[in-house]
Amino acid sequence: MIGGGTSNENASSSILTIRPRERVHSRYQRTLADLPWATFQVRLEVQVRKFFCGNAACHRRIFTEWLPDVAQPWARRTLRLAQALLAVGVALGGRAGSRLTQRLHRPTPPASLLRVVHHAPIPPTPTLKAVGVDEWA
Question: Does residue 62 have a pLDDT over 70?
Fold first, then answer.
């Protein structure tokens, strides 16, 4: 199943100058994998705009529109799919997680699951107040 769409933002901001950009340079299509719908794999085809930067001091001349609620820049998966694969990878690991993703109609190789886990940020841990003998073993 393929879904299409365009961004509905009025203007995009450059990362470095934080000024809205209104002069459209061009458009291109991003393809993102998403969570399955029933037994169908879902692929989103989103049209994204590129903008000219009007600031002469800016080193970058062209900026690409971001989709922060949908996907990270340069990602080929939506945030929802990435979070689901991370949960499967943390819980089951590579091979077992790969078998589960096939049953969930989103086949993912074991190496990809492990890569998702490896690149995930480490959650913050609370500071220890007291250390017992068991913590040293």
Answer: yes
**Ramachandran angles phi, psi of 15, nearest 5°:** -70, -40
| Domain residue extents for the chain | 1-67, 77-121
C-alpha angle 46-58-63 in degrees, rounded to nearest 5: 5
- What's the mean pLDDT in 104-126? 92
Q: Are the beta carbons of 83 and 35 closer than 8 angstroms?
A: no
For 58-96, b/e burial (b = at least 16 CB within 10 A) is eeeeebbbbbeebbeeeeebbbebbebbeebbeebebee
Note the pTM of the prediction, 2 decimals: 0.72
pLDDT for 19 equals 52
